[in-house]
Design goal:
Number of strands: 3
Largest sheet: 3 strands, antiparallel
Number of domains: 3
Distance between the termini: 32 Å
Length: about 270
């Protein structure tokens, strides 16, 4: 007897003990799983000899309430609906299938996501530190013009950044990251218009730009993997999808409430 048959035998035996009136249906069901009445009787003898169960003591808490044979929380009809919904979701996942995890694009996407999670926080921290070290690179007399110039530069050149997955040609602060109205409160405060007084270098350091370039490559690989997953229709079968979340919720409910599929021992009442 294999493990799967042992599991079915245990479930069917539990049903027969808890619901004596279903024993005939249970015995008929044995054949569906390649089990025999001898298997059932041997298991029964083992359980009794081990004092694992006492058949006479296994009764429902509310034996006289119709349609609540397993639980006082869910009716038999509701339990059947739970199992049917679980099976329907599992069928969706089975039909969708799994993405080719051995494909080069999939492996590259997984590696990219892991590396992004590791590198992105470091990049953001260093970027913030370098921003604080940048000062205006233009004469003070031209300072009032930097807001409009920054706005026009961002309007014309900033849109080109949309062609990238991550990096930028122009590095600007987000809105309200500074309180200078001449730079749109930070929205048009552009790093390439500033320099580091310590190094005399304009804009961010080559080291930070190199990290940005690496992140650009990683985000590109992650995007390609995402596109291929969507093209293949694999999205619903992946962890985190609505289908997976609902399936996990139903399975958790079944486990916590110790529910048994009513279809294993006849129609729901």
């Amino acid at each position: 007897m294999n493990k799967e048959q042992q599991r079915h035998l245990t479930n069917l035996y539990t049903i027969a003990q808890k619901y004596p009136g279903k024993k005939t249906a249970v015995l008929v069901k044995l054949e569906d799983y390649g089990l025999t009445i001898d298997d059932f009787n041997s298991y029964d003898s083992l359980m009794v000899s081990q004092n694992v169960v006492e058949p006479s003591s296994i009764v429902d808490e509310y034996p006289d309430v119709p349609a609540f044979t397993q639980s006082d929380k869910y009716s038999d009809t509701k339990i059947l609906e739970i199992f049917e919904a679980r099976d329907s979701l599992q069928n969706v996942i089975d039909e969708v299938g799994s993405p080719p995890t051995d494909a080069e694009w999939f492996q590259a996407g997984v590696t990219a996501e892991e590396r992004i999670a590791e590198l992105r926080p470091f990049y953001e921290t260093r970027k913030a530190e370098e921003w604080e070290g940048l000062e205006s690179a233009v004469p003070s007399a031209a300072t009032p013009l930097m807001g409009p110039i920054g706005f026009l530069t961002e309007l014309i050149g900033g849109a080109a950044d949309w062609r990238y997955d991550f990096k930028e040609d122009l590095h600007e602060r987000g809105a309200f990251t500074s309180w200078n109205p001449l730079t749109g409160f930070g929205a048009w405060d552009i790093a390439e218009f500033k320099k580091n007084p310590r190094t005399g270098q304009t804009g961010f350091s080559p080291e930070l730009i190199a990290i940005e370039e690496e992140l650009e490559k990683l985000y590109g690989e992650a995007r390609i993997a995402t596109e291929k997953i969507d093209e293949g229709g694999y999205r619903e079968g992946l962890p985190g999808s609505e289908t997976r979340i609902e399936l996990d919720r139903l399975n958790q409910m079944i486990t916590e409430e110790q529910l048994l599929d009513p279809r294993m021992f006849g129609e729901a009442q």
